[in-house]
Amino acid sequence: MKLVMSWDEWANLDAIGLAELVRKGQITPGEVAQQVTLAIDALNPEVNAIIEVFDDAVNDPMKDGTNPDGVFAGVPYLMKDIGPTLKGRLQEMGSLLMRGNRSAADSFLTKRIRQAGLNIIGRTTTPEYGLCSSAENPAVYVTRNPWNLDYTTCGSSAGTAAAVAAGIIPISHATDGGGSIRIPAGVNGNIGLKPSRGVFSVAPNGSDLMGSVSAQGCISRTIRDTAAFVDSCRGGAPGEFMPYWMPSQPYSELIRRDPGRLRIAVSHEWGDYRATPQIVAELERAASFLETLGHHVEWVTPDIDFHAAYAAQTDCYIMNFSQVISGLLEQKGLERPPADLVEPMCIRVWEEGRFASYTQRANMQAVFNDTSRRLGTFFGDWDVILTPTMALPTPKVGTTEYLTISGDPSVYDWFENLWRIFAYTSIANLCGLPGISLPMAELENGLPLGIHALTRQGDDGLLLQLGAQIERALNGKWNRGRRPDVHVASILTTI
Question: Which tens digits make up the pLDDT trace of 124-173?
């Protein structure tokens, strides 16, 4: 097929930019979708980010209810293979056990995504049930970092982060139960906002009461794309257990002006968890940059019992995950996960959590409450907490200690190992706070490193406003203007 634009032009357009061309009649949703499929065909063998392309949605972008008048006007979109469901489409959750599983209906958020004008054309990779840090089981698939194929994308929104970073698509679906939007966004040089609890609905099959730590969202390359996505897709469905946050003005308008002078607390020593010296140096550089923008920056650590908080978060994951697996087993008429179809650590977590008591859950919730109250008090004096997105460098592909194919016999030791590298993100999930990863830094080996910002619950717009201010100050050149080794603008120039 004939390209509608060069790959360099493609790479310089975000989703809003593509939608503007569609609205002007310069390109059609079908042509845009076809160009995405060319990029997938060429780059996916390298990064292994996309599981399936929906050819019918590529050939007929409006067939599933895509709104041609939405803010994203026919822009192609990929869904992480876990979370919101798509009627009649496969959702296999990164698991051999779920092969062939088809969804009966669109989720509420799926409908909001289509109403925003996004054309859902395929599925992206995730680790089994979204539990671990990378989509990396050779029996299923291995997703690789487009900046350097020897390294992981992290996760669990692995395929989404790789597809956006490689320039295949400007925006894609992601979920975050402990950092699964922000961590892969940071590792792949993207923008990743984990919204507050009470922004995106998980109806009808879940609620913020049932899945208190997990959030829906997107990964993108520009702040305005993320802001428009939140504006267009937020809101609760009938029967929610809590009110949903609604800002006084759309974020797409808010981000046009800089925030006032912010009080920014910088830290990296969270209990026993702390970043490497090189990562601390990048955090210091980012903090100094924010000072040049006029903000007050100071090294301050929140008064939190980090050990108790992360132990409670571990208990939450074990109990919630075990219930999810038990529900899937019941649907399939199975008493336990088959060892040849479910990864070893997933089985161990299920075993650990299936007999948990209400007392254990109540104790976990008490720690959640105490931590949330303490952070709420902290945000009375500070507007933003700034940390790295990760404490340790990006692992290489095949580093099994972080994966659910790990042979570690202890569930708790395995989780503790995860916290040592992903030390800063899950506090937002525990407390329902918004957090964002911004591609402002890099590791010694040249891989991207996200800088992570947190703020008070419901104030997602402040993080986007700060991100937009930084984006303008950088002239839009996130990652210092660099692109990954595997990228449409370099790999596909001959097509």
Answer: 999 999 999 899 999 999 999 999 999 999 999 999 999 999 999 999 99
The pair of structure tokens assigned to 376 is 């709420």
3-state helix vs strand vs coil in the chain, percent to 5: 40, 15, 45
The answer to whether 64 touches 114, Cβ cutoff 8 Å, is yes
Q: Return d(Cα 309, Cα 205) in angstroms, integer.
A: 27
Share of the chain above pLDDT 90, in %: 96
| DSSP H or E segment with residue 451 | strand 448-454
Q: Average pLDDT, stretch 220-226?
A: 98
- The mean pLDDT of 418-441, rounded to a whole number, is 97
What are φ and ψ of residue 124, in 5° steps?
Answer: -110, 160
Which residues sit opposite 433 in a β-bridge?
A: none
Q: In angstroms, what CA-CA distances link 415 with 248, 372, 422, 431?
A: 39, 21, 10, 19
Whether residue 259 has pLDDT greater than 70: yes
pLDDT (0 to 100) of residue 1: 62
3-state secondary structure of 281: helix
Backbone angles phi, psi at 113, to 5 degrees: -65, -45
Mean pLDDT estimate for the chain: 96
Measuring CA to CA, which residue among 259, 121, 126, 118 is closest to residue 180? 126
Distance CA 27, CA 5 (A): 9
∠ CA 377-209-326, nearest 5°, is 130
Which residue(s) pair with 80 in the sheet?
124
Q: Looking at residue 208, what is its pLDDT?
A: 81
Tell whether the model's pLDDT for residue 449 goes beyond 90.
Answer: yes
CA distance 214 to 195: 10
Say if CB 112 and CB 84 are below 8 A apart.
Answer: no
Alpha helices (H) along 136-276 = 158-165, 182-188, 223-233, 251-254
Q: What's the order of all strands across the beta sheet hosting 50-53?
A: 50-53, 119-124, 76-80
Tokens of 347: 């089985």
